[in-house]
């Protein structure tokens, strides 16, 4: 169940949002001030935040930069275009002006939750015990960090993006040649051999197999 934090000191609006979102199957939490929101976020990470700007104590504008890696939809009576632009530039994913149509707000919540889920999927690739983070370029096997060269990382990422498919040698070279000029047709087998050895050394599992005369793929994992 997706969790949404409503940060608004207006009890009526907060109740309206909570009721509508609960009907859509979301779990909701409430914070009535910026300070209360900071305390909540220090111990829990919701999937999305609805943020009012006119809050007691810490304002919404001051709170927004402190909310990291969570989509924030600003819900405010401020209608100035410069205000909207500034907030969007400071990290908000959307801006809804009060008064609002509840159906529109719920629809925007749904859209941004889907986007956030999609971004997470793109960032992290998982196959068996292998976890590849495309932002940090870290690769772990069964929780153990595996140090890969730039070429080995590019090969593994391409294989993990299509784990059930055989990737031909030409596809490998075409997709990674721009980022890895050291990978040529003659050296490809060597790079893959080193990659297989590094992955296997962690827990003895063979993750990559050659398909004779065609290319390579990830091995089926039972």
Defining traits:
single chain, 222 residues, Rossmann fold, Arc Repressor Mutant, subunit A, 2 domains, 42% helix, 21% strand, elongated
Characterize the structure shown.
The chain is an alpha/beta fold and 222 residues long. Helix content is 42%, strand content 21%. The chain has a 5-stranded parallel sheet with strand order 2-1-3-4-5, with helices on both faces. A 4-stranded antiparallel sheet has the order 6-7-8-9. It has a 3-stranded antiparallel sheet with strand order 10-12-11. Helix 4 links the parallel strand 4 and strand 5 (94-97). Helix 6 crosses helix 8 (188-203). The radius of gyration is 23 Å and the shape is elongated. The chain starts with a strand and ends with a strand. 24% of the residues are buried.
Estimate nothing, just give the exact number of structural domains: 2
Low-pLDDT stretches: none
CATH superfamily of the largest domain: Response regulator
Radius of gyration: 23 Å
Helix content: 40-55%
Spatial separation of the terminal alpha carbons: 29 Å
Strand order of the largest sheet: 2-1-3-4-5
- Helix and strand element order: EHEHEHEHEHEEEEHEHHEE
**Which outline best applies?**
elongated
Could you tell me the number of beta strands? 12
Number of helices: 8
- The secondary-structure class comes to alpha/beta
Describe the main β-sheet briefly. Answer: 5 strands, parallel
CATH architecture heading of the largest domain: 3-Layer(aba) Sandwich
Average pLDDT works out at 86
The level 1 CATH classification of the largest domain is: Alpha Beta
Topology-level CATH name of the largest domain: Rossmann fold
Give the percentage of residues in beta strands: 15-25%
